[in-house]
Amino acid sequence: MKIKKVITLALLPLAMLTAQAATAAVPNTKTFKHFIARMVHQHKFNGASLRKQFNSVVIQPAVLDAIAKPAEAKPWFEYREIFMTEERINNGVAFLEKNENALQAIEHKYGVPAEILVAIIGVESKYGEQPGKYRVIDALSTLSFAYPKRSQYFQKELESFLLMSRKEHIDPLKPMGSYAGAMGLPQFMPSNFNTYAVDFNHDHKRDIWKNNADAAASIANYFAKNHWQSGEAIAFSVKAKGDGYLQLLNDTLKPDATVAQLRAAQIAVPTQLPDDENVKLLGFQHAGGEDLWVTLHNFYVITRYNHSPLYAMAVYQLSQAIAERKRALHSPAELQK
Q1: Does the pLDDT at position 1 exceed 60?
Q2: Contact predicate 314/123, CB 8 Å
Q3: pLDDT tens figures, 186-201
């Protein structure tokens, strides 16, 4: 199948790709030379060995295509349909039950509900079915050296990946991940792996690819370090009278209003929320208009994992659907069938 050619003014270093069907070697540019020099001088890598390793790395035009059209660019009603499916809900229940003992221990240690951890894994990798089809080093190298728009960020991730591979005794040419270099069941970027990944079963490996407990505990640790509040609510669907609520909608994600302000704008906030609670009002587009949600601190914590309100709402709604389906399957009426 012929690969779509990618040539823009921002991607001039990729001009060499136009004569090739799919991939190319990492170009020996000044940027690449500086990167190798930094790894040698700051982190004591062997320059010759590192260059030899990069001889096996390829630039992937498909990565550039994928990063140009992320799923979060879709409207909410289309984005939601990707994740809120019967298959993903049922498989979430199965994942939760299969790993129930470990998930209960993780929830007890970190305070993050098991269904939230399972929903993250369901959204990120479909419970491990879709951990990514690109070699991580290829994806990160493509975005480091052939995507000038965000090359600095991805060079830092490539640096983190090489440090991770050395510390974890992993061949850097082996791990697979997403087009952006995200890895394993939780789709951690390498810098997040280095900071948050957990060896939960104490086997001296932080295995987020095949060890479900390590993957779930790593997500829980990420949330805990970002100040998840155990036992607190996440979000409430609300209704509003008139259009006064519009003044409270903006592009920020952190709670920036009080419940009293929302009530003054004729938003029917749940009675259990006190007037001085800090909250955020968000609107989610559907085919016939907009759904309004009041979100709290823990919703904001989910957006620290992926800075998209669509992502956080998909995780929240999937988690609720998984928990409800599990309760229904184990209800007395269901058990008597």
Answers
A1: no
A2: yes
A3: 999 999 999 999 999 9
Ramachandran sector of residue 230 (left: φ over 0; alpha: ψ -120 to 50; beta: rest): beta
The Cα–Cα gap between 219 and 121 comes to 9
Give the residue-averaged pLDDT of 26-45.
96
Average pLDDT of the residues in 63-91: 92
Contact 57, 26 (CB under 8 A): yes
Of 3, 13, 6, nearest to 148 by C-alpha is: 13
The confidence score (pLDDT) of residue 8 equals: 35
9-69+132-182 is classed CATH 1.10.8.350: yes
* Amino acid in the structure at residue 46: N
- The catalytic site residues sit at 124
**CB-based contact 33:145 (threshold 8 Å):** no
Single-letter code of the amino acid located at 63: V
Write down the domain spans for the chain: 9-69+132-182
